[in-house]
Amino acid sequence: MGKISMVMFDLSGTTVYDDTGVRDCLYQAAQEFKLKTTPEEILYHMGTNKIHLYQFLIAREMGRKIEIEDFEKIKDPETYEQAKKVFDRYQEIMLEYYRKQCKEVPGASDTFKWCHAHGIKVATDTGFHRLITDAIMEGLGWVRDGLVDLSVDVEHIPGEIGRPAPFMIFYAMTQLNIQSVHEVIKIGDTPADMLEGRNAGCRGVIGVLSGPRPVTDWGRYWHTHVIPSVADLPELIEKEFL
Description:
single chain; alpha/beta; Rossmann fold; DNA polymerase, domain 1; 2 domains; 6-stranded parallel sheet; 6 strands
């Protein structure tokens, strides 16, 4: 089996520091629109397309239950308009948050540099839409400084299909000319990340303990490895994947 040619890194909680800030912004918008949910439920479903997350909450209030595995399989035009209003408010709150505080998980930039030194392409993907993704990249300078080869968000995919669908990984592979998922690692800190990597057929699906989600949330989904932080990825690749 060949060497690793690309790593798809999650953003918030994996490479971008998050102490529940994203959860709190999502929850604040839900509360303002009187959606019935809890911070814990929001936390569990993070990593997905945020409009679809709000659609899930609205659909549930209408008596329809959707599991996270099916988030991108079920299209529900009936809930979209209301969900988009909640999302627009969330995006305002989230942008203000990241404009004030946006920092990397310690060691993220060093890991990106290590990957490039070993011929591994660096891509990021996220459940965020373009405005928030761009705010993160502008704040951290990763694309500008050449540390990230490609930043992917749900708006790159027709229909804005996010995780747990594998299409953002496939999009990055197409753009970076990576021709086998057996040369790809997916790393993240949510159930959506684990499901995405599994659905893509990645050679490595790695969970990190640096995010606000407890391992009991995402650890029950299929993965190949667990490491404390993205800073530990180079050692793992050298040990398990080279």
